[in-house]
Amino acid sequence: MHNVNRRDLLRIAGFASILATGGRLSPMATARPLVSDGSGTTLDAVATPLGDHGYQRLGPGPGWPTIIRSDLAEPLPSREDRRVPLASVVQLTDVHIIDAQSPARFEYLHPINGSAFRPQETLTVQGLIALVHRINALRAGPHGGRAFDAVISTGDNCDNMEIAELEWFLTALNGGRIAPDTGLPNVYEGVQKFSSNQYWNPDDPIFDLYKQAGFPTVPGLLEAAIKPVDSPGLTTPWYSVFGNHDNSVSGVAPFGIPPLQAMYTGNLKYVSPASPTARAVSAAIDTDPAAIVAALSAATVPPRLVTADPARRPLSPREYIAAHLDPAHTGPGPLGHGFAPDAGETGIGYYSFEIAPQVVGISLDTANRAGLVDGSLGEAQFRWVEGLLRAGSSKFYDSAGYLTTEPKTDTYFLIFSHHTSATMDNLAPDPERPQELRYSGAQLIELLRRFPNVLGWVNGHTHMNKITPWPGPTPEQGFWEINTASHIDFPQLGRIIEITDNRDGTVSLFSTLFEAMSPYSVDYDDHSPLGLASLYRELSYNDIHRSADLAGAPPDRNVELVVKVLR
Known about the structure:
Strand order of the largest sheet: 1-4-26-25-24-5-6-9
Distance between the termini: 24 Å
Oligomer: single chain
Number of strands: 26
Structural class: alpha/beta
C-alpha cells in the first residue's frame, strides 16, 4: 500500500500554486518555493525536459512526493510526534569516472552496447564535483534533520579500473585539484576528435549520428573538459564499495590478461573497425577476453596513433584498495575509507563500520574476481556476514527457523553492496580461491531474513531506482532492498537514507533522492566547472541509447519505508 506523506501534499500544492500564478509565489507556496537551480532535493524540483521530442534542454519540474510504503509494516498514527532520528547516510553509486582518451576503451561497440560510448563521458569529473557540492550544501536529511553520518559510494567508482580514473575519483571526494587528462597534455585524443560519424563531435561541424538526433555543436568543449578543476571534497566521512568496473576491464574481463593490459598503456586507439570486427570483439568480451586483441587485428580500419601514458595502467584489486589506504587520500576520513589497514595485502574488500550509535554498516565485496558483469559472495565473506549479524542480535532465527536468544547488545544493520539480489548469480570460482563456494543473491536474502535487526540492503549496478520489500516468515524478519540510479546515466541521482525509531515497534527508513548542484541549463559557451556539469546532465538525458525508465516509479524514489522490529 502506498500513501503520500502529508508534508509532501503541501509541497505538491505549493508547486501547483506557482504554476497557477504564472510563476509568482502564492501564499500556499511561500514555505517551500521552487528554486530554479534545483537547490535541495527532488522533494523540491526535478530536472525535466522542456520539449516533447528531439534534442531537449532541461528545466526544473515538480518535485517528487514522499510515498509511504506499508508493504512490510503498518505505519501507525502520530509516529511523527514520537520519531527519533538514529542515523543519516548518503549513497552515491555508479559514478563511473572515465578516462575518455584511453586506448583500452571499446566505444565502437555502442550500437551493440549503448554504455560503450556516452556523449557526456568526457565530463564525469565535473559531474561528480557538482554532486560533492550538493552533499556539502545539504548537510542533513530533510525528514529527521540529523547531520549526515556517512557517505557511501556503492561501487563502479571508476569505469575501467585505471590509475588515473581512481586518482580522479579519490581527489573529487577528498578534495584537491584534478587534471582529467591523459596522453598528450592539454590535447584531447579521444574518439570525439577524430571526425567519425559514429560519435558526437562537439568541436566539428560533421553531421554525425548524434547531430542527426539534434545534438548541438559546442566549440571548445573538449579542450575545456580536460582543464584542471578543483573539488572541495566531502565534509562527511565516506566509505568505498567495490563494483565490477573497479575490478574488471570494462566491468567484464578479469584483471591480468596480458594483451588487454598492454592496450591500456599502448598508443593504438581503435575508433571504427568494420561491423564484423565489432561483433567479434563484443563476443570476445563475453566469452574469451584474451581473444579481443586477435579480433582487432582483423580490423579493416587501422587504429589511430595516440600518446601512450603509464597513468592509464589498470589496477589490481589489491592496488585499488591500497590507493584508498594512502594517507594522502584520507580527506574527511576515515583512513582507508572502510578498508582494513592490511587489506592492500590481503585483498579483502569487505568490512563493517559504525554509522551511528547502535547502527552498523556492512560493506560487501560482491565483485567476482573471475570477471563478468554480475557478482556473488565467497563462503568466507558469507560466513563473516553471518557472524557479524549474530554478534549484534539478541534475538535471531537459526538456519532451521527457530527463534534464538543470546545475551548480546542489539544493533541495527544496513547492508551496502554494488550488486543487487537479482544480479548476484555469477558463481564462477574466484581464481585465487578456486575451491571456495560462491553464494547467490537469493542465498544472501535468506541469511538476512534470519536477523530482524537488518533494516535494509542498499545497492547500485542496475543504474535505476527500484525498492523491493523482502517479507520474512514473521513480520519482524522483513527488510527493504534499496537500489539506486547511477550518476553516469540520466537521471543522475544520489540518495539520502534516514533511519528513525518510531517508538512503536517499527523503524522508518526515509529515502530522498537528490541531484548535483549544477544549473539545469546553461549557454553552450559556459565552460565553467558547473556549466560543464550542467551539460553533463543534459547530454545524458539526450543520449541516443538512454533508457527511459531509470528513474523508476514513484514508490521507488522518495519514500518512507516502514519495517517492524523485535522489541
